[in-house]
Specification:
357 residues, Rossmann fold, seven-stranded mixed sheet, six-stranded parallel sheet
Length: 357
């Protein structure tokens, strides 16, 4: 997989005036989001990337976005409308947008598409995602040191490999610190549903969880944990303000540099279809600030995991790894491949409950 050399792309922004677009109509780019840009999570962070591109290119770029588009039949209609409006680059930002994106792209070969978290590409369709599981290994380390009950609650969205691999990486790291700890998962079957997310967090706390993690887009689980006096981790953006006393840290997705580089490439004619999967080392995945209440030894342990992942000294999916039944899935000295992580459809030891199909 190819990681973009963002620094080189950004270094030439000062020379934007030389683009073919100069003196002509602005280049049009559009974004389509599965949730509202006010979700303070995934869609919010993607919209920060759009705004970063606007700031970088000024009046040479005209952007638009459509929010709260459900993963279904409406996606194709929205994409076709964006093409009809003259957009030459479209960021299609949810896994469930994949097939409609490929269909619209095939019918419009002069338009370039960037599909987030998918795996199907075409000459005019690139894919990109982030190695969220790397940050979740850091959060699992923190959880293992902060939990007293040994029970962690995990509010999950939809049981696709991206979500499952995050749960597994979190659990593996957790049990390295607290071998008897367990992770209870509740799926809300939506990326953004504050009511269901809050209800899931409450149910998990009632089941004994004293730390709440999430892979959903609203701050509702953090707000619930704050109200109940339970430690928690946010998702996608820095959610500290929603739980100032109990938010320990969280996964932050940084799409800004990638978005700017891809818009630039589309504008100057150098864009080519590719796949990008960036992690902590690339800066595409970051960690929210640690809660000041976190003990120093916990912060030190978390920082070591983060630094070792960045340095290539630690792979969150290095063996030995056991499955839910306690049988060895992966021996010591081996690691799951990218393909295996991208297709992960099983739970590791320590995760309770069955994985929905």
């Amino acid at each position: 997989m190819k990681l973009m050399k963002w620094a080189a792309a950004l270094a030439v922004l000062a020379g934007i005036s030389g683009f073919a677009q100069a003196g002509d109509e602005p280049f049009k780019a559009a974004w389509i989001y599965v949730g509202p840009v006010s979700d303070h999570g995934y869609s919010f962070q993607h919209d920060q990337g759009r705004k970063a591109a606007e700031a970088a290119f000024g009046n040479k770029l005209q952007t638009t976005f459509v929010e709260s588009v459900p993963e279904g039949a409406d996606v194709e209609r929205v994409l076709n409308k964006l093409v009809k409006d003259g957009n030459k680059l479209i960021f299609s930002t949810s896994f469930g947008f994949m097939n409609p994106t490929l269909k619209v792209a095939k019918a419009n070969p002069d338009v370039k598409f960037e599909h987030a978290t998918g795996y199907k590409r075409a000459d005019n369709v690139s894919t990109y995602s982030a190695r969220f599981y790397e940050a979740r290994a850091v959060l699992g380390t923190i959880a293992g040191k902060m939990t007293k009950s040994g029970t962690i609650g995990y509010v999950a969205s939809i049981p696709i490999p991206e979500v499952v691999s995050g749960i597994n990486a979190f659990t593996i790291a957790l049990r390295k610190v607290r071998p008897d700890a367990v992770v209870k998962v509740i799926y809300v079957n939506s990326w953004y549903d504050p009511g269901k997310e809050a209800a899931a967090a409450k149910a998990l706390i009632d089941q004994g969880a004293d730390v709440i993690a999430q892979h959903t887009d609203s701050p509702a689980p953090v707000q619930t944990a704050e109200e109940r006096g339970v430690w928690c981790f946010g998702q996608s953006s820095d959610m500290t303000r929603f739980g100032p006393k109990h938010h320990l840290s969280g996964v932050i997705e940084n799409w800004n540099e990638y978005t700017i580089a891809e818009v630039k490439a589309a504008m100057d004619g150098s864009w080519k279809s590719h796949d990008t999967w960036g992690g902590l080392a690339s800066g595409m995945v970051q960690l929210a600030p640690f809660n000041p209440a976190m003990p120093k030894d916990v912060a030190d342990a978390a920082n070591k995991v983060r630094d070792d992942i960045i340095a290539g000294k630690l792979n969150p999916f290095a063996g030995p790894i056991k499955g839910q039944d306690g049988k060895e899935l992966l021996p010591a000295g081996k690691s799951f491949s990218d393909a295996e992580i991208l297709g992960m459809n099983f739970y590791v030891e320590g995760v309770q409950g069955n994985l929905p199909k």
